[in-house]
Amino acid sequence: MISRVLENRILRSLRFFPAVGILGPRQVGKTTLAQKLMSELNKPSIYFDLELAEDFQTISQNTSWVIENNVDKTIVIDEVQRLLPLFPQLRALIDRKREAARFILLGSASPDFLQKSSESLAGRIAYHELSPILASEADSIEIPMRTHWHRGGFPDALLAPDDGFWLQWQQNFIKTYVEQDLSKLGISISIPLLNNFLRMISHVHGSLLNYLTISNSIGISATSVKRYIEILEQAYLVRRLEPWFVNVSKRIVKSPKIYIRDTGNLHFLHNIKQPDDLTAHPIAGASWEGYVIEQVINVLDPAIQPFFYRTSNGAEMDLVLVDGLTPVVSIEIKISLAPALKRGSSESVNDLKTVNNFLVTPKGGNVAVKPGWLHCNLNELLQNLRTLKIINI
């Protein structure tokens, strides 16, 4: 079993909060992680999966009885978004006997899960988002970074026996999301058009998000495009990275950039079937950029927020890490093995006044390339950020 970075954070929350919510896309490993947590808690536990008819009936019809007769146990409820009326009942039962680790609630793509649980369980629940397997986690079982970058971090896809099975898993995963989950979440367009929409998003991966351009390309309104991208974000399929522009007097680009969060999904949508096909593909540079950004964001200290930076006169930085209102780290990401820092990077650092600046490539080397700049690979970057107490792994 792959050890997950999130495990210790969740165990810490369970020592204080009555309920802990673990969020994430389908097949990311939430159930596996919950089962591991159950074995490590200092109290017995019981598990219900609301996708099973008998478990759904048990919980929905006998909520109070089940909970009161298992008051000494941690109750794990999987796919809890299928029974949203449960949350007000949980609040009453928690308040009747408030103690740590009473519930672990697992939920996948559902905007209503966060809203309903936040409304009902405010102050009683801590949330944790489980990402696909990270590079640092894959490295612990000796999966090469090149393989992880190509296949992405969904466990079954990453651990597939060969690239053919990886491709088949991706086909099934995207089909499930397109034909079932996304339509339930409110994307009310035909399946062929939704497939085209996802492929269009894959082609603007790493670019400034222009709703009108996407609208014109696939023939739906810009308002619908914006709403559908919000749904994809809530379903943990895409990430919108916002620009940093607080307290800066220059003309700043204020549109977000968009990324498909899992590079395995991205490469499938581009029909990149094996790692050798990736390096020569036009999407390779943007893919590497999104890959590095996702590995960093998922282990950031909660106090640190991620942004990018771009001005109308050419200053640009791929990732800026901000503590409060202070940029503390600038990260430029290049796929070239012999990159050169451009004027725009230097201008960005002058604007942002960051002391710690990193140029990240696949090769790296932890080599100073100019004052205030270190050239490193992904593993070296994570080590440096850990030393700076920017990340928690």
UniProtKB/TrEMBL annotation:
Pfam families assigned: AAA_14 (PF13173), DUF4143 (PF13635)
Recorded GO MF terms: ATP binding
Matching Gene3D superfamilies: P-loop containing nucleotide triphosphate hydrolases (3.40.50.300)
InterPro entries membership: AAA+_ATPase, AAA_14, DUF4143, P-loop_NTPase
Residue ranges of domain AAA+ ATPase in the record: 16-132
Protein's UniProt name: ATP-binding protein
Lineage: Bacteria, Pseudomonadati, Bacteroidota, Cytophagia, Cytophagales
Source organism, top-level taxon: Bacteria
SUPFAM superfamilies, per the entry: P-loop containing nucleoside triphosphate hydrolases (SSF52540)
Transmembrane segment boundaries: none
Organism: Dyadobacter pollutisoli
UniProtKB keywords: ATP-binding, Nucleotide-binding
